């Protein structure tokens, strides 16, 4: 059964979910130290890559890593195409996201990874009866080119003359062909634009296929849906009770004269009700929806997963609980209620996020009953309260101490003890060290532990038995983070334990200068992350260099390490959403010399009001307060490239790091000596 794209359609759609992770870089097996990993939070490693511009200075190159694992997708595509013929679908689209527009998905939701063999977190697959294309961005060009087999064409998004996946699908539809997809996996705005593009190119249009065809191909091999507990987050960490959050949301609904808001993003549901789960690795969320009106709040989730404390809290706050799948059953009643509460022939509309699925909008009755808006819950969540901000400061001190201990240990192992360590052994050791600290829950993403050429792979994924052995004479990049009850961390440091090349030192220092420039920026209220992105790139640009990723992303409070709607970069959403006091986001410029090394320096920072001599336009002015407490690599800094102001910033930062973390190492002379050495003034 299929449904053409029509605005008044009232049909509801449901479908299961999934994901797959399959690749790595081969390197000699190491002799790892004995390390006990921490099992308290689910983990998953994700690999991403980029093709970086060449660095013009003479440098020591390293051997290219061997090919990543390529998955043979011939039989999978054949099975999918057979189902497409049965259902008269000429072109089938497989997005990366789940039904909640999640960036990272549960294992059961990795349809695109399964059908294509490409395991990066971003990308869309488009399959015809004789072709298959995978579109992804610059972070993943290398990875995708190595993971995709001969059945696939790689569409490198953002490069000149390369079509988007929408353009490619529309082009393939010429001659009256039909494009189909699972409507729970795409937003209605994207679906409508795609439908217009298809028809403009002579296609029959876009059709919603309610039964996901990749699910049918995956069949019994598809991972089961997770059923992890849903727990209550204490208000001593959340800083605000759910009743207060609901009151504020209802004020927004009243302003918009809406019937209610249907919450579809998982982190927004978790934040709104002060609940946390672990259905998606590293992300403390759970499968759920919510509906909030002026006189009711309903959580749609598996009630058997709720702990007694969570159930009691929901009851106290007058929040009803219904089965997860009941939302789509209730949508007709919601539409009827909106119509009954309207004025004359105009119903009061329900609000949904612009990221909500096409299926959800259709189920609620389409444009007559639904308005798509930037989520008011997302906006509120992005502005942390004082409890959350203080938690961010405190957890970063503990996390900084853990990273400092790890780097001191790693240098000692490699240089003094001449140990042979692979990238996974190092990552596991870091997790072990982190787990000793107060309020630690687990990792916030899979640790990117990368040596030499692997560091040029932006979101590299080391795998035991096939990862690199850490070379003490090469750059080592570690991008890692943790989930604590009082906050979420994400820090990148690039180190060199031997003698770096002049090219490596120059690149590192240019990246550091960009980090300092953004950290010290002052800007009027209303400024967007798009407007200040160039501050971090300016020094690289002067040398003809750049990096193919954003400069900063929002970070949740014991929630997703990537949190919208704010960020720093060139994405469209960063043009539309200004930064605000209370936002927490990363500052992470980098440079990647493909096949040789990679450099990234990442701090988390709080947006706050700053005092200025003047106040043009009577506007408040904003700046950043960095909370990351980890030293920078002295060995990689070319001091001659720093201004006096930059050296002062660096010295002040080092003094702050030493003061905040030194107390953790009273009984650890090795780490204390390393910390003191790395924070000496320039």
TrEMBL record:
Record-given protein name: Probable Xaa-Pro aminopeptidase P
UniProt record similarity statement: Belongs to the peptidase M24B family.
The GO biological-process annotations, alphabetized, read as: proteolysis
User: Which ranges carry the Peptidase M24 C-terminal domain?
Assistant: 620-682
Record GO terms (molecular function): metal ion binding; metalloaminopeptidase activity
In this protein, which residues make up the domain named Creatinase N-terminal?
76-199
| Record keywords | Aminopeptidase, Hydrolase, Manganese, Metal-binding, Metalloprotease, Protease
What is its biological role? Catalyzes the removal of a penultimate prolyl residue from the N-termini of peptides.
Q: Taking every annotated instance into account, which residue ranges of this chain make up the domain Peptidase M24? A: 391-609
Show the PROSITE patterns listed in the entry.
PROLINE_PEPTIDASE (PS00491)
Q: Which reaction does it catalyse?
A: Release of any N-terminal amino acid, including proline, that is linked to proline, even from a dipeptide or tripeptide
Q: Which organism is it from?
A: Cercophora newfieldiana
Q: Look at the named UniProt entry and state the broad enzyme category this protein falls under.
A: hydrolase
Q: EC number(s) for this protein?
A: 3.4.11.9
Cofactor(s) needed for function: Mn(2+)
- What InterPro entries does UniProt report for this protein, alphabetically? Creatin/AminoP/Spt16_N, Creatinase/aminopeptidase-like, Creatinase_N, Pept_M24, Pept_M24B, Peptidase_M24_C, Peptidase_M24B_aminopep-P_CS, X-Pro_aminopeptidase_P
Q: Which GO terms describe its cellular component?
A: cytoplasm
Query: What's the superkingdom here?
Result: Eukaryota
